[in-house]
Structure formats: structure tokens, C-alpha cells
Amino acid sequence: NFELAYLYVMEYLPANLPDYIHYHNVEHTVEVVRNIETIAKGENVNDEEMVILKTAALFHDTGFTQTYNNHEFVSTQIAREVLPKYGYSDEQIDLVSSLIMATVYPPQPKNKLEMIISDADILYIGEDDFDNVAKKLEIEFKHEAIINDHNDWLRTEYNFLKNAKFYTDTAKKLMDEGLRKNLEEAERQYLQSINSK
Q1: Distances from the Cα of 92 to the Cα of 48, 80, 160, angstroms
Q2: Which of 6, 35, 68, 136 has a CA positioned 20 to 30 A from the CA of residue 147?
Q3: Residue 67 clears pLDDT 70, i.e. is over it
Q4: What is the signed CA dihedral for 50, 115, 103, 160, rounded to 10 degrees?
Q5: What is the rounded radius of gyration, in angstroms, for the C-alpha atoms of the chain?
């Protein structure tokens, strides 16, 4: 029962996420589930695949409640613990878990469903408000000492966008142009930060 699993995660994340998690929060999870619906429809998945994809999106960042590094694996453990209560079979839970692991960065999707969830997780990189969303991620990276300062963030962000790509035709059509613009802006900001040193 996806609806009940959805309600569970909507309560679980806000109650258990650390305060410094500004990006990988319940809003991001809701957005990725929505992105799944958009991309999966465009990719003509069947009803069961749609539910499995949405379930994987729902649980893919639950591991942040316990750890920042390797959160994907912890997310699969949480899914395996919770989903039997909502009528998911072992086979369905295995598929959900493999799709959660497909969100590990850098993505290496091996099939259509993995391509869909990979794209859904980072669809924001092609959106107009990319910069505002990225600022939330910068807060997390600073807290985790992944970056030292804002200049370090600008370099990280530029390199990420430079190497980022969408895998499904649907996401490419929707977001390739936006990704190109966001990359240009990230490059401009990064070069400005280097030149101002």
C-alpha cells in the first residue's frame, strides 16, 4: 500500500532528520516522487513499475536520519524493515532496494528504471531555481566538511554540473536546456571566484 507507506515517510523524515539537513529533507523527497511520475509516464512504465519507482523515491533518503555517508545503504535497510508492514513482497522490496542504490553518486544506471530514478533525483539541476536549491546543499556540505568555504562550493558545484547528465529521453527533453544554462552560470561564478582571489 503505497499511500500508507507515503504517510509513514512523511512523518518519519521531519521527526528524525538532523537540523542541518536543509536539502535532503521531506520537500526533496516529495519532489523526487513527483519527478518520478513525470519521467516514468514519459518512459511508458507499467503500473507496478510506477509504484516500485515511487516507493524507492520515497525511501531513497531516509538513511540521512542515521548517517550522511553511505546513506543509500541505510535507506535500503529502513525500506526492508518498513515495507513488509504495507504489503510489499520480498521481490518488490529487493527491486526497491536496488533502485535506491541506483541513486548513489556518480550514477551508473543499468536499466530503464534505474535511469528514471537517477534523473528524478537530480532533475533540479535543469530548473530555474537551481541556485536557491543548491544553497541548501551547500549548508549540508559545510556541516559535513565536504567543502571548506563558498569558493570551494562554487568549484564543487561547477564540476558536478559539468559532469552531470540525464539518461532518459523525457528528462533530456525537459531539462537539458536548463542544465546548459545552469552550467554556464556556475562556470561564470566559479571563474569570478578564482579571479577575485
Answers
A1: 9, 10, 32
A2: 35
A3: yes
A4: -140
A5: 17
